[in-house]
Write a structure and sequence with these properties.
By secondary structure, the protein is α+β, with helices and mostly antiparallel strands. Helix content is 31%, strand content 27%. The strands form 2 sheets. The protein has a 5-stranded mixed β-sheet. Strands 1-3 form a two-stranded antiparallel ribbon. A hairpin with a 5-residue loop joins β6 and β7. The longest helix has 17 residues. The chain is globular.
């Protein structure tokens, strides 16, 4: 909650550097690996892993991805799959995180990035509804966008996009 307040107040200065998108993704995977292993889940990387770059803050971007990935892990069944794709075009760099989980109810989708919002999921988590709101703030503070698509019982797909030339 303190991080959200500091971001909203503009009290956090993001480091601006050209980084490979795989760097914050690797940090997120390493941080959450014990949770992934305990649920016997498989995280697969795909796309332009060694090529895609963006201009932003590696550690804060990792924080955003950790929150999104944690959500995917919690709402994906034991033995489920999570696919992280990295894309780059001349216009944007993108991270797509797609899980094979329970999906998000249509009525919850417009609210999942709201602070303290907890959907009507069947999975009981320790969450207080801050993680996705924090992720959105971090990504948007760096000129990026985040969107979500989901259908109940069909999994969820988060898309993070950073336009080129945004400094």
């Amino acid at each position: 909650l303190l991080k959200v307040a500091r971001l909203e107040a503009g009290a956090i200065q993001f480091k601006r550097a050209c980084i490979y998108l795989i760097e914050p993704v690797d940090i997120a995977i390493a941080t959450l690996n014990p949770k992934v292993e305990s649920k016997h889940q498989l995280i697969t990387l795909d796309g332009e892993i060694k090529k895609a770059q963006f201009f932003g803050d590696r550690d804060w971007t990792a924080e955003a991805i950790i929150n999104i990935l944690k959500n995917c892990i919690e709402h994906t069944e034991y033995g489920g799959n999570i696919l992280i794709s990295i894309e780059e075009t001349p216009i944007f760099s993108r991270i797509i995180i797609k899980d094979s989980g329970e999906g998000i109810d249509r009525k919850d989708l417009p609210h999942i990035f709201e602070r303290f919002y907890k959907g009507t999921s069947t999975v009981k988590t320790e969450s207080v509804g801050i993680g996705l709101a924090l992720s959105k703030l971090i990504i948007e503070s760096q000129g990026g966008t985040i969107s979500v698509k989901s259908k109940k019982h069909e999994g969820t797909k988060f898309t993070i996009t950073f336009l080129k030339g945004i400094i």
